[in-house]
């Protein structure tokens, strides 16, 4: 019995601006700061390798001081709509109805909802009343792949079932107006909002690339590298400058033994489906693969077009590759990093 990826669909929020049009808002936000500091911040935005990004709110709202409650309410309202749209899109691509889904996983780290988003999606799309729910929070950028791993484990144990993994994120709703730290600035420069849904199936007749294996890799003593601090003003970004260095130092242990355990090697992997964490992480990964003839062009293009949308971003890379078409027999490697610190991996074959 195999588990396959049946479809992937994204949903984008209504507001978008190229990075160049955000600069005037930076001038307003940084008013009164040292001129050298202002130039440094603008340089970070200009060099982030993000040409545009999308948001659940317009730029004026992003840079306007509002309460944590107001931003979270916006996250709930707009995020639920994005979740509904991407789930509908994935169902349509797969030729399915809402009642064909047996397991629903929602992943997000940029806001709070109780009941979780899956409850609202069950109502909106009239999903099955006996559907199994799993909301996943607090796993950050890794959660898109994490959700797929949980779905794979469920489907592997339950033949003839389908699962929907919905990733919805609004990092712009976490922007801290009184925080001029590098973590908040870098976060604002690279992150954008978005959502994506992937449908997985253990129906033998369903098409799609087969999942050959999944694993997680956890870094010891690295909880300080990435995450959020819950302050009175909301979710405050924690982002250590050592993240690319830590990834580089563990990269061999993350990639090669995993592939070997599943009877393959990096030379046999044709499709690299990597989470675009940011320009420095992409550069680090490219350097590590420099001698293998591999590229992560799709990862770079997703970052350029949309920014880092936390857990949803790797699913945008996956959608690009699936929609383009992949030759039968090709193998693919999905990889994302997130708070913990951890790396999540999935091996695919078309």
From TrEMBL:
Domain Chalcone/stilbene synthase C-terminal, which positions? 225-348
Is Transmembrane helix there in the keyword field? no
User: Would you indicate the residue range of the signal peptide?
Assistant: none
UniProt keywords (A-Z) are: Acyltransferase, Transferase
Chalcone/stilbene synthase N-terminal domain: residues covered: 36-202
Instruction: Look up keyword Acyltransferase and say if it applies.
Output: yes
InterPro entries, per the entry: Chalcone/stilbene_synt_C, Chalcone/stilbene_synt_N, Polyketide_synthase_type-III, Thiolase-like
Q: Which family does it belong to?
A: Belongs to the thiolase-like superfamily. Chalcone/stilbene synthases family.
User: Which PANTHER family did the record assign?
Assistant: 1,3,6,8-TETRAHYDROXYNAPHTHALENE SYNTHASE, HYDROXYMETHYLGLUTARYL-COA SYNTHASE
Q: What is this protein called?
A: Type III polyketide synthase
């Amino acid at each position: 019995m195999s588990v396959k990826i049946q479809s992937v669909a994204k949903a984008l929020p209504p507001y978008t601006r190229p990075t160049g049009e955000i600069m005037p808002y930076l001038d307003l936000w940084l008013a009164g700061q040292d001129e050298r500091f202002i130039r440094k911040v603008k340089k970070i935005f200009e060099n982030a390798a993000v040409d545009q990004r999308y948001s659940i709110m317009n730029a004026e709202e992003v840079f306007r001081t509002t309460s944590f409650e107001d931003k979270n309410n916006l996250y709930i309202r707009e995020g639920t709509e994005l979740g509904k749209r991407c789930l509908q899109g994935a169902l349509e691509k797969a030729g399915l109805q809402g009642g064909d889904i047996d397991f629903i996983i929602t992943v997000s780290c940029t806001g709070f909802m109780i009941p979780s988003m899956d409850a609202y999606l069950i109502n909106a799309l009239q999903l099955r009343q006996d559907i199994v729910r799993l909301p996943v929070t607090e796993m950050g950028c890794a959660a898109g792949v994490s959700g797929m791993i949980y779905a794979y484990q469920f489907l592997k144990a339950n033949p003839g079932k389908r699962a929907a993994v919905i990733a919805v994120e609004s990092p712009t709703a976490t922007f801290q107006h009184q925080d001029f730290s590098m973590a908040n600035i870098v976060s604002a420069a690279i992150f954008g909002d978005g959502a994506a849904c992937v449908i997985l199936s253990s129906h033998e007749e369903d098409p799609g690339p087969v999942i050959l294996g999944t694993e997680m890799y956890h870094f010891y003593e690295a909880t300080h590298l990435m995450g959020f601090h819950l302050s009175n003003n909301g979710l405050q970004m924690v982002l250590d400058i050592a993240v690319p260095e830590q990834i580089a130092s563990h990269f061999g242990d993350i990639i090669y033994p995993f592939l070997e355990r599943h009877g393959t090697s990096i030379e046999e992997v044709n499709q690299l489906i990597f989470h675009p964490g940011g320009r420095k992480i992409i550069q680090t990964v490219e350097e590590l693969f420099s001698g293998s003839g591999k590229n992560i062009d799709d990862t770079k293009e997703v970052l350029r077009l949309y920014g880092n949308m936390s857990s949803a971003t790797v699913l945008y890379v996956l959608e690009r590759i699936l929609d383009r078409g992949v030759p039968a027999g090709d193998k693919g490697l999905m990889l994302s990093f997130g708070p913990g610190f951890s790396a999540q991996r999935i091996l695919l074959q078309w």
